[in-house]
Input
Amino acid sequence: MGKTIRTNAASSGVKLDGRQIKALSAKSDRPGLIYLAKWVVLLGLSGSAVWLTLGSWLMWPLMFVHGVILCVPAYSASHETAHGTAFKSKWLNETVLWITSFIYMEEPLHRRYTHTNHHSFTWHVGKDSQMPFDTPMGFGGWLQEITGIGLARFHTHVFFQLALRRYTDTMRMACPESVFGKMTRNARIMIALYALIAIAPAYGIWWPIWLFVLPRLLGAPIMLLFTLTQHVELQENSPSILESTRSFHTGAVAKFLYMNMNHHVEHHLYPQVPFYALPQLADAVKDQVPEPDPGFFKTNMEVLRVVIRRSLGLSTRSHSIRQASHMISDGGPYEKIAHRTM
Output
């Protein structure tokens, strides 16, 4: 495989004034602490609603709501802290990374370094360690992704590989050898904590099941619908983030849950810009990037329509979302270009 250009603003032909980038990249504890406070309040309210309705049918839709509030910000905050941009204070950043990675269910340093690799070689086959589904995507792949089965299998495998010190080629490619010992320690601690949660009901302790385990399962598909939009139906092996990555329009609730990562093209162009400055960054580069795709639900419904039609051998041309040209066909069988790496 030939040399791959690292994917960023320079490789994508996007330019901003250096002083503007520096101003947008300034770190602060305050926005992250405000976000955490709002998230904790929402979790308290949704968790209380679940607790007060235990035993009635209402507990199930409320556990779903609680699960969405639990899962999506946990993914978003673990992502932001993996970048080291959520807080100015390193100890605060690392503490939140650990806790949210526990909820997301990935060892935090593995999360950090494989995600760094993902930014360096975004959607490059054989180099990007975070390609969560096969491309092109069919309906079976969509189901495996949205149910969380594929991701749970991958994360469980990673936990036990790290715990047993069986470091894979991907780990060695993405992670510095100096952190392997810490990764093993973290994995063993997390496995022990998950085991305690699993055996808690045997001792009459059920609250982790009602407030963590079942909501985590119920809310995961919404979290995964957010992450699916990032690169699905777009171009592999391109140096340009504009071809491999998608932003989408959405409302205030989704922007909060996703920590402004709907500006995903902009985030990949300048990953050093914190979540709270992404709207300003998006405005600064709007004339240099593609128009964001339609809202969260409309984008995901269009992705679903396309993958169903692909699996049925029908035309895969989208009516409303960006697609790489090779994702568009008039029907018939299709060949895999890339297999999932996570």
